[in-house]
Write a structure and sequence with these properties.
The chain is built from 11 helices and 8 strands. With 253 residues, the chain is an alpha/beta fold. It has an 8-stranded parallel barrel, surrounded by 8 helices. Helix 4 packs parallel to helix 5. The radius of gyration is 17 Å and the shape is globular.
Length: 253
């Protein structure tokens, strides 16, 4: 399948970071994010995403080691563009690496990476990781300039930050919400025209996922915080199955 001709339903990557957040709140060994990943696989997740932050606030190096050795589905390692994280990616050789912006004081990733400002640095980080066989994506805003930069630095995938769209949806700012959706649609079409695979994620819920999943160029959605929160009420497997169903229905499959 070419990046510009995505067919079928989009894949679902389940982010397990916040299982580790709950574990680390008590400094205990549970709940185990690797166990959550196994539940996600059983529920039909197409991949597992984990963000190894520089401050190790949730996922740990030991978690990544276990995920690489024990998962049957692909692991998508989210990481900052640092030499330390590059060395970890080269050591563990995950299926995919998604490079994200990271600020110590932020609660979560607040915006996309500014690839246009850091092209040479990103090339140096991405090159060896791509050469070893890991698929490399950049987590960016739906901006044509950022898409162009992603192609120049050697990424094969772009993942669009959907947080602004989701925020405007829940603030009932419908015109702004539609404007955000249009930006994502236009950027997705442009990225696919360059031969880049298109992913999206951040803040997606049962209520907000359908318009994103409808975008024909989007091959994968990565969703975590909402699914882990919804698991308190429904169970993780059921929450994932509902999300997968909504994604499939969005493509009329």
């Amino acid at each position: 399948m070419s990046a510009s001709n995505v067919s079928g339903k989009p894949r679902l990557g389940v982010n397990i970071d916040h299982v580790a957040t709950v574990r680390n709140a008590r400094g205990s060994s549970y709940p185990d994010p690797v166990r959550a990943a196994r539940f996600a696989e059983r529920a039909g997740a197409d991949g597992i995403t984990a963000h190894l932050r520089e401050d190790r606030r949730h996922i740990s190096d030991a978690d990544i080691e276990k995920l690489v050795s024990e998962l049957s589905k692909p692991l998508n390692l989210e990481m900052a563009a640092t030499e330390e994280m590059q060395s970890i990616a080269l050591r563990f050789k995950p299926h995919a690496v998604c490079i994200v912006p990271e600020r110590r004081e932020e609660r979560t990733t607040e915006s996309g990476l500014d690839a246009t400002r850091h092209e040479e640095h990103l090339k140096a980080i991405i090159g060896p990781i791509a050469e070893q066989g890991s698929r490399v994506s950049l987590f960016i805003n739906s901006d044509i300039r950022q898409v162009e930069a992603a192609g120049r630095v050697g990424a094969s995938v772009v993942e669009f930050h959907t947080g602004s769209y989701c925020e405007r949806f829940f603030e009932n700012r419908l015109n702004d919400c539609e404007n955000e959706l249009n930006r994502i649609r236009e950027a997705a079409a442009f990225a696919a025209s360059l031969g880049l695979e298109v992913h999206a994620g951040h803040g997606l819920t049962f209520e907000t996922v359908t318009p994103i999943a409808e975008i024909p160029q989007i091959a994968e959605l990565n969703i975590g915080h909402f699914l882990i929160g919804e698991a308190i009420f429904l169970g993780l497997e059921q929450a994932i199955r509902i999300m997968k169903k909504l994604m499939a229905e969005a493509r009329k499959i």
